[in-house]
Give the backbone structure.
Amino acid sequence: MALIVQKYGGSSVADAESIKRVAKRIVDTRRAGHDVVVAVSAMGDTTDELLELAHEVAPLPAPRELDMLLSSGERISMALLAMTIHSMGFEARSFTGSQAGMITDSHHGKARIVDVTPVRLREALDEGAIVIVAGFQGFNRDTRDITTLGRGGSDTTAVALAAALKADVCEIYSDVDGIYTADPRVIPLARKLDRISSEEMLELAANGAKVLYIRAVEYARRHGVLIHARSTFSSAEGTYVLGEGMTAPRASEGEVMEEPIVAGVATDLSQAKITVTGVPDVPGKAAEIFKIVSKSGANVDMIVQNVSAASTGRTDISFTLPKADAPAALKALSVEQGEVGFENLLHDDQIGKLSVVGAGMRTHSGVSAILFEALSEGGINIEMISTSEIRISVVLRGSDLAEAARTVHAAYGLDSEIEAVVHAGTGR
Ligand code: ADP
Ligand code: ASP
Ligand code: MG
């Protein structure tokens, strides 16, 4: 008998029919003799709808109240799921994040889990119940307020529960059959992976692949949790995300796999670019600029500084950041324009970021050449470039992104012969 944590995303519990499908899966796992703990997301696009509603009544909703509102989505789905399981003749008990002992810091909207004390879950399991936990939410002990863990945060709930309860596996169910070499909504010929290293998955998640939430992958890596990403809509094996020293359950003894050089391609349309023009080319200016940007709360990703024009002694600095952070960063910079002495601010929210990820880049040369050649043959202009040990990213026009991704995916030989299936969801 194993202890299995299962997480069902919004598209898996979008309506009554879907909730029944999920309940059946849970009951089947229980029937097979396992203890089951479930983390569940809000139904369908509920969280987006609640967010829109909040912005209709207040341009800048109070963070505490926004968390109160958003956490209600998961309460609906957890109770409905527990009721459905009851009606199938099984004992199930639902718990909010705070009842489940999900203790976080006080950072509303993006709280970090600091402790998990699943006392009540243990009791329920010991009494033979199936445990259902509202994903995406926690509780801060100092403020005694409800927090949320960031968009996509139900994945983190599941992984944190798996770590605290020492589960055998954390199964993350969504509307695709696992982790693919690219988002199958963007590249229909993406190929499903049987396994991926947590290191590569982190890079993909950090660069736009929302199939797993980055903090969940980090948490799993730190606590040695085995993630199995799979589909609610089929019983096929999905993708195992393997931390160092882990092996997939069904990997044959002593199996040596030739790892592909490139694991996958990620696309991201959620970033904007700010260019600060005419910055005096003297020591300390970059420090001043990025101190202002960081104080505005923005999370800077790529940075490029141009060679300064000798005649003017001035240079341009461009950086990318989440679109949502741009207004605050622009405002903060313009307030300090006189102090820093730059000439102008340009804002571009029509960019796209394409990233190629693979641990094999450490040991193989020529990986970037393939990317640049493919983009050049496609006539696609590159605006910025950045690299890490196992990733190359380029910034392009947003309107070129999907086409560029397909070209690059093919150039690395990642295309499959068959089209991937996306079972449900709106991709919102
Ligand atoms: P859930 O609502 O179940 O949490 P998400 O919408 O967060 O599901 O994640 C699943 C979606 O992630 C898929 O529908 C797919 O469009 C997208 N996705 C992005 N990159 C990938 C990838 N590399 N492999 C699989 N899916 C991906
Ligand atoms: N419902 C939350 C969201 O939409 C959390 C999640 O789905 O993981 O972001
Ligand atoms: Mg998700």
Observations:
- The radius of gyration is 23 Å.
- Residues 80 and 212 are 24 Å apart (CA to CA).
- The first strand starts at residue 3 and ends at 8.
- The mean pLDDT is 95.
